[in-house]
Amino acid sequence: MADLLRVEGLRKTFTLGGPPWARRRVVALDGVSLALGLGRTLGLVGESGSGKSTLGRCILGLTTPDEGSVTFDGTEVASLRGRALLDFRRRVQPVFQDPWGSLDPRWTVGRSVREALDCFRIGTSADRDRRVLDLFRRVGLDPDLAGRRPTRLSGGQRQRVAIAAALASGPELIVADEPVSALDMSVQAQILNLFMDLRRDLGVASVFVTHDLGVVKHVSDEVAVMFRGRLVETGEVEEVMDRPRHDYTRALLAANPALHVLPAPRSP
Amino acid sequence: MTALLSVSDVAIRFAGPARPAVDGVSLDLRAGEMFGLVGESGSGKSTLANAVLGLLPASATVTGSIRLEGRELLGLPEEELRAIRGDAAAMIFQDASASLDPTWPVGDQIAETIRAHRPVSRREAERRALELMAEVGIPDPARRFRDAPHRFSGGMRQRIVIAAALANDPRLLIADEPTTALDVTIQAQVLQLIDRLRREHGTTVLLITHDLGVVAQACDRVGVMRGGRLLEVVATADLFAKPSHPYTRALLAANPATAPRGSRLPVIPPEWSVEALDG
Fold first, then answer.
1. Residue B175: beta bridge partners?
2. Closest in B40, B264, B275 to A185, CB measured
3. Please, what's the largest Cα pairwise distance for chain B?
4. In terms of residue numbers, what domain contains A239?
5. Smallest Cβ distance to B256: which of A186, A214, A263?
6. Contact predicate A205/A5, CB 8 Å
7. Is residue A267 part of a domain?
8. Under a CB-based contact definition with an 8 Å cutoff, are residues A185 and B255 in contact?
9. What are the backbone dihedrals phi and psi of residue B206, each rounded to the nearest 5 degrees, phi first?
10. Are residues A87 and A61 in the same domain?
11. Beta bridge partners of A96
């Protein structure tokens, strides 16, 4: 089966610092290759500075790599222009850690979701209002909340709105960068359930960028471990968790107390 | 046995909201233990911790009693509280850089903490600061003594803050989410450091965290807070083996790290969810 997403030999270097004597070069991605099949979920883990967010942004076409390619459904992302690029944006959608960044504070959240439908000209104009309410229900939000501004919602509700906006265009791939990291445990569980529903009901593939191996273990089919710009280990989640081969993966597993110290809850 | 820190029927209100931030909490910390106070946002855990050392803004009204080694802290004048902070009791926070002066060598900052409370010479304070830097695991401390905080990584900065907090051998260390901002591999190291130091110095630690994994790793006992109330206080082993409060049970079950892979995570009943508090 053809892969939905292929990343090959990606390299990206950033130059940090202001004046010439303070500048330093940081290799964010150093020859990264991976592939993801239709409807699959890939957990991308690593610590801060490992390059996982840069990889996510390259997949979204928001950052241009220095070398290598990102291919979505057989077409190289960097070559896309005009209508083809718009179509790519419709099919590949981001969800970020902080929904504040995705929602205009002056707009009602319903208008923000409607904007996504308008942008991609989905359905007729009259049809879109109904679709906004459907999307609210789809992500488990009371449609009455559509008339509120982001400040009048809780953090979990805002993240649901951001997910509704991402779903508006009917994407085939969602790149979610730490989508539950800022949420309390009780809210995080709800959002993780929502991601799993979307995969089951809509067959959406996702790249789940996170530093939390507990989350990866729970939602992903595959895992890719990043360390200093390189992929040091990839594989099926169970295989990597049970038999980590790379020292860094072992350190990451050992350091996550929740995976060892906490006993699994007994069935009620 | 007398408690090192005794919190009794403490309520804390802020000027605006109707609901008290902390609502009738009583709690005794035993000398030398590491006590974890867990809860989600809005549970009141940090507000309570800040109240102990008088760090709340003027808009807060605190009632009840907070005693450190028998001495009432509530209502103490600011200058007496300042004499206690950094001496008998110290506090560290999530963001280590906020606790450090960015323009000042870290060694001098630790030495200053000593000289603020002890009549020792500059030389003696610096010698002790150097020892502390070595003790918290700063490699090559003599060379790093004059470096400014930005020359250190996040984990190393938190070690510097811990060194300053322990400079005067406090009886009580309050640590508010000390590892939350750090990468997981560094988190474990910093927790192990706090644990080693409290064993070696007999310090009592009040650890504030939202992370049950951190509690499981480090604490002797744990108190679970929600909506300003302390729901239960239990030995850490019992919390995980037989959680008695329904909220604690729900919180444990919602952890993806321990739930069966790909299963539907049990959702915390609406009446216990964070969102129910202000809805």
1. B92, B207
2. B40
3. 62
4. 1-73+174-262
5. A214
6. yes
7. no
8. yes
9. -105, 110
10. no
11. none
**CA nearest to B263 within chain A:** A218
* Domains contained in chain A, number: 2
Can you give the length of chain B in residues? Answer: 279
Domain CATH code at residue A128: 3.40.50.300
**A–B CB contacts, 8 A cutoff, strictly below:** 125
Task: Report the candidate in B12, B55, B3, B11 with the shortest Cα–Cα distance to residue B30.
Answer: B3
Question: Would you tell me which residues 10-49 of chain A have a C-beta closer than 8 angstroms to some C-beta of chain B?
Answer: 47-48
- A136, A171, A206 - which closes a domain: A171
d(CA A185, CA B197): 30
Tell which B residues from 243 to 272 touch A, by Cβ distance under 8 Å.
249-268, 272
Please check whether residue A113 is in contact with residue A165, taking contact to mean a CB–CB distance below 8 angstroms: yes
* C-beta separation of B107 from B161 below 8 A: no
ipTM of the complex: 0.81
CB A113 within 8 A of CB A146: yes
Judge: domain B5-210, CATH 3.40.50.300.
Answer: yes
Rounded average pLDDT per 10-residue block, chain B, 279 residues: 90 89 96 95 94 95 97 96 96 93 96 96 97 95 96 94 96 95 87 94 96 90 95 93 88 88 84 65
- The interaxial angle of helices A155-167 and A185-202, nearest 10 deg, is 20
Query: Which residues 203-232 of A are in CB contact (within 8 Å) with B?
Result: 211-215, 217-219
Say whether pTM exceeds 0.95.
no
Residues of chain A found within 8 Å of residue B250, distances taken between Cβ atoms:
186
Answer yes or no: is A197 within a domain: yes
pLDDT tens, position by position, for chain A (268 residues)?
579 999 999 999 998 877 888 888 889 999 999 999 999 999 999 988 899 999 999 999 999 999 999 999 999 999 999 999 999 999 999 999 888 888 999 999 999 999 999 999 998 988 999 999 999 999 999 999 999 999 999 888 999 999 999 999 999 999 999 999 888 888 899 999 999 999 999 999 999 999 888 999 999 999 999 999 999 999 999 999 989 999 989 988 887 777 766 666 554 4
Q: Are A123 and A234 found together in one domain?
A: no
CA distance B237 to chain A (A): 10
Nearest residue of B to residue A47 by CA position?
B183
Residues of chain B contacting A196 with CB distance shorter than 8 Å: 262, 264
Asked, for residue A6, whether it belongs to a domain, the answer is: yes
Tokens of B184: 């997981």
Residue A154 one-letter amino acid: S
Q: Which residue of A has its CA nearest to B188?
A: A255
| Residue A163 and residue A79 share a domain | yes
Long-range Cβ contacts of B234-238 (<8 Å, 24+ apart): B236/B36
Q: Are residues A86 and A167 in the same domain?
A: yes
Cα first-last separation, chain A: 41
Same domain, A178 and A162: no
Sign (positive or negative) of CA dihedral B112, B118, B123, B126: negative
Of A124, A140, A171, the position where a domain reaches its end is: A171
